[in-house]
TrEMBL record:
PANTHER family on file: INNER MEMBRANE PROTEIN YEDI
Keywords: Membrane, Transmembrane, Transmembrane helix
Transmembrane region(s): 71-100, 150-167, 173-197, 218-251, 271-296
Keyword presence, Cell cycle: no
Pfam families, per the entry: DUF808 (PF05661)
Domain of life according to the entry: Bacteria
Record's protein name: DUF808 domain-containing protein
Length: 303
């Protein structure tokens, strides 16, 4: 009897692991698009940090990301169990915040370009940077990246939860925890590699091999361009992810876009769908920015 019970237990465990493996693969595929946005966003979030402080900053953001998921996974399970109707509105609020941050970044970039054309403004900016406390600068960078990560992590958790919602509670917990850990390790491992590309280039450039030197020179030339590309892609990702969340939350709009793109080829349909998310994201972000500035002015007047 004991042997039979043990075999039954092992069979149950094998079935459970098989179910978890299948659902985990589906969840990983579904969240792959968000992971790309997560990667580009977080890689560009750590730009401007001193070379010897890049990895500590990435590690600081990674720890914040783990904490985000430690909060989000049980919270998502609780909301799913007791108030599933709250998931979409909360995600839409997070999407609106991402769009707001995206608009802020665009305006900051335009202001920065204008300042670079003026020698006086450029000198003022350099003086301001020189007076800034490096530790405070790093702290603000980490805080900003962790805030952004929270929204993206929430979407990843929500997508995964949608896939495993009909599964037993144990399966849900294991899959959500597994995806959360793998995503964090994967994203921040790649981010750490990206920000240290230039260091690898310098190391290879000093080697005796002509091939190594050539690769080193290529990496040194490529690294700044990669960071610029990631900065642009990261800002676009804010609108795409934020706008996409809002589109999916507004059922009539989501169905309208599906009807318009339904008979089109996959590439054209994807471009139009993402274009709609991008435009809506920018509009929503602009509205939120106007509201925030209006509230700030009203509070300033009342003080």
């Amino acid at each position: 009897m004991a042997g039979t019970s043990l075999l039954t237990l092992l069979d149950d465990i094998a079935t459970l692991l098989d179910d978890i493996s299948v659902m985990g693969k589906v969840a990983a595929k579904k969240t792959a698009g968000v992971l790309g946005d997560d990667l580009s966003l977080n890689a560009q979030q750590v730009t401007g940090v001193k070379a010897n402080r890049e990895l500590p900053v990435v590690w600081g953001v990674a720890k914040g990301s783990f904490l985000n998921k430690l909060i989000l996974v049980p919270l998502a399970l609780l909301i799913s169990a007791f108030a599933p109707w709250l998931i979409t509105p909360l995600l839409m609020l997070g999407g609106a915040y991402l769009c707001y941050e995206g608009v802020e970044k665009v305006l900051h970039s335009l202001q920065h370009d204008k300042q670079e054309k003026s020698p006086e403004a450029r000198q003022q900016r350099l003086n301001k940077l020189a007076q800034q406390d490096p530790r405070e600068f790093e702290k603000n960078k980490v805080k900003g990246a962790v805030r952004t990560d929270f929204i993206l992590s929430a979407e990843i958790v929500a997508i995964t939860l949608g896939i495993v919602s009909e599964a037993p509670l144990l399966n849900q917990v294991l899959i959500l925890a597994g995806i959360a850990i793998l995503v964090t390790i994967g994203v921040y491992g790649i981010v750490a590699a990206i920000v240290k590309l230039d260091d690898l280039g310098y190391w290879l450039k000093d080697k005796s091999s002509a091939v190594a030197q050539g690769v080193g020179r290529f990496l040194l030339g490529f690294a700044p361009w990669l960071m610029k590309i990631l900065s642009v892609v990261g800002t676009l990702a804010m609108f795409l992810v934020g706008g996409g969340i809002i589109v999916h939350g507004l059922a009539p709009l989501h169905h309208l876009i599906e009807q318009i793109t339904g008979n089109m080829s996959g590439l054209v349909a994807s471009l139009l769908s993402n274009g709609a998310s991008l435009v809506l994201g920018f509009i929503v972000g602009s509205i939120v920015l106007l509201v925030v500035n209006l509230i700030a002015k009203l509070r300033g007047k009342s003080v």
